[in-house]
Amino acid sequence: MTPHLLVDATRPHVQVPVHAVKDGRIVLNVAERAVAGLQMSNDVIRFSARFGGVSHSVSVPVSAVLAIYARETGQGMALPEDSLADAADETDVVMETDADEVSHAPLSIVPDEGAPDDGDDNPPTPTPRRSGHLRIVK
Questions:
Q1: Which helix (H) or strand (E) holds 82?
Q2: How many CB atoms lie within 10 A of CB 62?
């Protein structure tokens, strides 16, 4: 299975290539063959990956992860909103930089101004792309 993360790219401290963001969200393939230098902690997920053939450093606070799922089946789990709110209620989050410096960064809650509430507590699971993007050139 190929693990993918659905990330809210509008959250503070999310560092992803802007050109890959759609509707304020980005889907990240975190399979071992797709990333380099994967570091996962309780606070942040960091790795290097290629977007459009160009290598980019990616840093995602765990509080910005909306869902994790398998590309092949679409099965996975959406993280509950209360855990996102609990993480955002903290006044400071300690972020480590590449130079082993520690900085404190305030977090804030961003209201969701999406679709009106239809009473469905379970957000839809993102559907994975099925078609390949490579073609044979002779």
A1: helix 81-89
A2: 17
